[in-house]
Design a protein that fits this description.
495 residues; disordered N terminus; 1% strand
């Protein structure tokens, strides 16, 4: 496949994509918002318009991606329909067709070169020479997200947990709906298809205010905190860790933990806000993950749509916690290793999954030994609160250890980061005031009570529309001043 010699991003080489954090998207969304509500009462025409808008949104990255979006749509639409009329003994074959075709497309575009490089390296290690060519493959943006979403549909139909969607237009929109197309949340058919199949009900000014508040918060997270830390700290540290002191490198690791949360949860906030304005409710995808007191709770709070997908469609089918402790730990490890591979074609992602799978197993074993499986009771005593804070801090640093391998371009770079931290040097000329402020604000705001956030959102929603407009203008001005010359793509677009 030939390269596109246009705008370069961390994910490959793309055209002029419509990014959430651009004025181009603001105009695009405004037009879609107005027209879609004008079409209420004409549901077929409305869905057709939203489908065209979604395909335009995705095609702005590269028009060739549209075929990859359309192919699983057609396959899984037909598979789902055939399942509804096929005898039970033939449904397994239809499900296999869906899974193999979806994973085959995903595997080729995302893992072909990784597989070839791994085979060549292995053969060289045993003294065999092989010259297997790799391909110039552009990774289609968001392919892992919509692949998992459409696979969930066919699996749920097979399990009789979801009704068959017989309307091609609605199903195509379910796969491609632009607010959550490229980075989730990964929505189940049971939630999203019924909402897309009917006209939305009118929402109140209060709901609109809450949606706009979410969008503004998401953009602030992304541009003011995430992008600023990436450009002025994280990218520099991870590119050449030996050029910085241990304190600066450690700050860079904390900075990446802050960046990836602000980047991804910021995207989710914008997606949920846009969905509300379009009359669609997405499920919660983040719930203050760095407040987790153990790794198990972290995965109940981080990227919830993926963690529940892995639980329902991988961990439980493997056997879950049935059939003894050994099988439980084995299933946890397989799930997290494949979860790591889902994030990227590299051994460092597999190791990241290994770190999480290992500690999840240890956590499960500890809970079984203590008899503390089940719902966590938040402590009320001073000693209990102190222990809770300690374990939150410990969990956060273990997650940060995993982030080192997640962010690094290779194992070598990851070890270089950890080695530099071990020098314990404290020279810090690069930790200037604005960098520290962004880091502190990003971390501290994460630990603010949820009630305070909900209070602020409700207060904003209750303001007159012109005051809301003035505040949003101020936010836009801040974003303009804080933004880099070129819009920085969201991290999870590459997955």
């Amino acid at each position: 496949m030939a390269k596109l010699l246009e705008t370069r991003s961390p994910h490959g080489v793309y055209g002029r994509p419509v990014l959430f954090n651009t004025l181009q998207f603001a105009w695009f969304f405004l037009a879609v918002f107005v027209i879609s509500w004008l079409l209420v009462g004409r549901p077929t025409l409305r869905r057709l318009f939203l489908l065209a808008a979604s395909y335009y949104f995705y095609g702005s990255w590269d028009w060739r991606f549209l075929g990859l979006l359309g192919l699983p749509t057609v396959i899984d639409l037909l598979v789902g329909y055939r399942m509804s009329i096929a005898p039970k003994h033939k449904r397994r074959g239809l499900l296999l067709l869906s899974v193999v075709s979806n994973l085959g497309i995903l595997g080729f575009f995302k893992y072909y070169n990784f597989f070839i490089d791994s085979v060549v390296t292995t053969l060289h290690s045993v003294g065999l020479h092989a010259d297997i060519p790799t391909l110039q493959i552009i990774l289609p943006v968001g392919i892992s997200f919509y692949t998992f979403q459409t696979m969930a549909y066919t699996i749920d139909v097979y399990r009789d947990r979801s009704e068959v969607c017989k309307d091609p237009l609605t199903f195509a929109l379910y796969v491609s709906f632009f607010p959550q197309l490229v980075a989730g949340p990964i929505e189940r058919a049971q939630n999203l298809i019924p909402q897309l199949a009917r006209d939305p009900t009118a929402f109140s000014q209060s709901e609109a205010g809450k949606a706009l508040f979410l969008i503004a918060i998401g953009l602030i997270k992304k541009v003011v905190i995430g992008d600023y830390l990436a450009i002025n700290l994280v990218d520099r540290v991870f590119t050449s860790p030996s050029s910085y002191s241990a304190l600066e490198v450690l700050a860079g690791v904390y900075g990446y933990a802050t960046q990836i949360y602000c980047d991804f949860s910021g995207y989710t906030d914008i997606a949920i806000g846009c969905g509300i304005l379009m009359g669609v409710r997405f499920n919660l995808n983040f719930n203050s993950p760095y407040k987790a007191h153990n790794l198990q709770e972290f995965w109940h709070r981080w990227h919830i749509s993926l963690s529940t997908w892995l639980r329902d469609y991988l961990y439980i089918p493997l056997g879950g916690s049935r059939n003894g402790s050994f099988n439980t730990y084995k299933n946890l490890m397989i799930t997290m290793l494949l979860g790591g591979l889902w994030h990227g074609a590299g051994w460092q992602f597999m190791f990241w999954g290994f770190l999480h799978g290992g500690l999840l197993g240890v956590t499960r074993a500890w809970q079984r030994w203590r008899g503390t499986e089940g719902a966590y009771v938040f402590p009320t005593t001073a000693w209990g609160l102190l222990k809770h804070a300690f374990f939150v801090l410990l969990t956060f640093h273990y997650v940060c250890l995993g982030w080192v391998f997640f962010r690094a371009e290779s194992f070598g770079k990851a070890w270089a980061v950890l080695k530099q931290i071990s020098t314990l040097t404290t020279y810090h000329p690069n930790l200037h005031g604005w960098v520290l402020l962004a880091l502190v604000v990003g971390l501290v705001s994460h630990y603010t009570p949820d009630s305070l956030f909900e209070w602020a959102r409700s207060k904003f929603a209750a303001l007159p529309w012109y005051v809301q407009g003035l505040l949003l203008f101020v936010v836009a001005f801040v974003l303009r001043e804080a933004a880099s010359a070129d819009a920085v793509p969201f991290i999870y677009f590459q997955f």
